[in-house]
Please model this.
Amino acid sequence: MPTKSLLELARWKKDHELTILLSLLKKEVAPSQRTFADIHLHKLDWARLLRLADHHRVVPLIYLQLKKSNDPAIPGPLLESLQVQYHRNTLRMLLLQAEAARLTRLLMDHGIRVFILKGPALAQQLYGDVSLRTSKDIDLLIAPDDMDEAEHWIREAGYESKSGETRVLGSWKWKDHHTSFLHPQKRVEVELHWRLHPDAGGEPSFDELWDRRQFSESAGASRGGQSASADSTAAMAASTYTLGGEHQFLYLSAHGARHGWFRLRWLVDIDRLTACDVDWEALLLLLRRYGGLPVGGQAWKLAAALLGTPIPEPMRPISETRQAHRLALSALAFMQASVPAPHPVASGPGANGTAASELSQSIALTQPVETAPSDGGASVGGAAAGDAFGEAALHDVSDATGIAREVGSVTGDTVSTLNTAVSSLTMPVASATAASSPAVAVATAVTPQPISRAYLLSLKEPRHRLLYLISRLFPSTGDPILLPLPRKLHFLYIPLRPFLWLKRRFSKH
Model:
């Protein structure tokens, strides 16, 4: 089925702000060649465009492209506001980059191998510039057996644990995937991972990841250069590492899928990865081995439809399956529901022979049939999720006021002029959502909406669905919070698991 049917079915082509946003995110196309000529820029809802860019965490890319276009219809105060955010993000990313390098050296000095996930290292690897991507924290990956020692040195570096959770028996090693720390003075958060993903899914071992590691660009190595000579502790401590290209896709596609792709930034990462040195044949084998075919197909389907990403030939078969199409529709429905939209999701037959009922079924998958687990499960809205949907809860009317305040702080006494030139910047968000469909209205509530368990299970192959369900029977780090027990009695958490689950479930209601 043609990928363009995804957008036509979702009616995104009628969403002018999103059309402009997607066009600006495509690489290697001059802004003057984009869709500017097809849309009356002076009629755009610039407030909504700004909100979309912020929600999807793509402000740096949007700012540079709008500035490069030099179109007179683009409000000057809007560009000034974006410029402020761009420079603020650059300073933040440089801080995170320096702090990640410091922590990496500290851990490696004590013989602990460590990867830098996402953040500045990924920005350097995929974009060649840390200022072109946003990040809220530092993600480090170490081997599970190094957790106790790594936590000790993270605390020695001035960080305090945010979770305060107790690890029960040994199930945390394969059921959960990270713990969080915060530096009270620097206000920097660190997530220390011992797995790439939660929920007991299949993934490469740390040793396998380490064998295919790449130098981080910040370490002065060329892109794609692998560490073949870093055998000594001293040489390791002088370097920082990221995942290899194939493992990077395996990680990014599963991470984006788990969160419903509600941020376009994750798809832009996939798009930029296509320009890196990746062995696509080897990647296909990895996807088959670790159950990544469903999420891999979904990622390619979405990237091709939204960003025009060229799909490598070995990846085409997995992107053309009916499952990939259904999962992509589910993600599109969730994307639309996560921000104010000017049009209903669907109300009639779709284009290219795709029935609107197909999208309705996908929307149903994104509705919270039951709250996703907060005890290490994969949830867009749960506290255990790395980039929780709580952080992505829809901006209310005060956010529109905040945009105007941001612009006012840049332009000084020109607020009255701004109101005349860009009156839409202070438009209440409620008016933007008044015409939304019921599915959109539900998701635009202030209370964050977790993604459904049905969607999360649909991302897995049958064998991994079974492992996921079995994992729910084992204790988690959240159980001692509900029922503290001495370490010698931790074995009781196994028979008590159903009762603790019921207590957690009813306490949420």
The first strand starts at residue 115 and ends at 117. The two ends are 42 Å apart (CA to CA).
